[in-house]
Specification:
Layout (H helix, E strand, L loop, with lengths): L5 H4 L4 E5 L7 H10 L4 E5 L5 H11 L4 E5 L4 H9 L4 E3 L5 H8 L5 E2 L1 E2 L2 H9 L4 E4 L8 H8 L6 E4 L5 H9 L6 E3 L5 H5 L3 H14 L1
Parallel strand pairs: 1-2, 1-9, 2-3, 3-4, 4-5, 6-7, 7-8
Helix pairs in contact: 2-3, 2-10
The chain binds 3-phosphoglyceric acid.
3-phosphoglyceric acid binds next to strand 9.
């Protein structure tokens, strides 16, 4: 049975996409984002420290809603669940991952980049999808173009969302949230610049 994560988002519309390389950064980074109004996090499985970071945040940061991103296969999905992730996100969906998803009721935001992928996911019961990489696919033009033919699909565009275009994306009727790395990019995380990340998070939280 497929399940959308949107009820978990509780109205939060901006999702920082995170790469955490040092497990010691997990707690201060997540706390900083939650404290500045962004409780929904997408921690990507793009680092060796990701699963440890997910476990730490899920067990120690009150109010954090822990999503796990960059899930490419069933094994990663299982590890993400086991680590305490509350929902999963993928950049796209292979046939093998789709088979795992339809047998799973873990909330999941699957990625799509074409009408055919959107329809495949829709047939599987996913009406909430990640549009990725949104800017490369045409950004607002793509969202407007698909709003007619697939009017019942709602998107979280990610990939190329920045402070100067975030509000426009959020204003699209077929957008329920946006995601991106601009709030806590890797260079600021490596520098442990929680002040700057907190400032960016507070600004992003105002968008919603
Ligand atoms: C993702 O995994 O969703 C993307 O890396 C986010 O893209 P961005 O770096 O352009 O925000």
């Amino acid at each position: 049975m497929t399940k959308s994560p949107t009820s978990l988002l509780a109205g939060n519309k901006v999702i920082p996409v995170l790469v955490i390389e040092d497990p010691a950064d997990a707690l201060p980074l997540a706390q900083c984002l939650v404290d500045n109004g962004l409780p929904v996090l997408e921690i990507t499985l793009r680092s060796d420290a990701a699963l440890a970071a997910i476990e730490t945040i899920a067990s120690k940061v009150d109010g954090a809603i822990v999503g796990v991103g960059s899930i490419l296969n069933g094994a990663q999905l299982q590890s993400a669940k086991d680590a305490g992730g509350q929902f999963g996100v993928s950049p796209g969906v292979s046939n093998a991952l789709l088979d795992v998803l339809v047998d799973n009721d873990w909330p999941f935001l699957p990625g799509a980049g074409t009408l055919s992928e959107m329809l495949t996911l829709r047939d599987a019961g996913y009406f909430d999808q990640k549009l990725f990489p949104a800017a490369v696919l045409g950004g607002l033009s793509m969202l407007k173009a698909v709003a007619g033919p697939v009017a019942d699909i709602s998107f979280c565009p990610t990939g190329g969302i920045k402070p100067d275009n975030a509000a426009e994306f959020l204003a699209q009727p077929n957008v329920f949230a946006i995601g991106g790395t601009w709030i806590a990019p890797l260079d600021l995380v490596r520098a442990r610049d929680w002040a700057e990340i907190g400032k960016r998070a507070a600004e992003a939280a105002k968008l919603a």
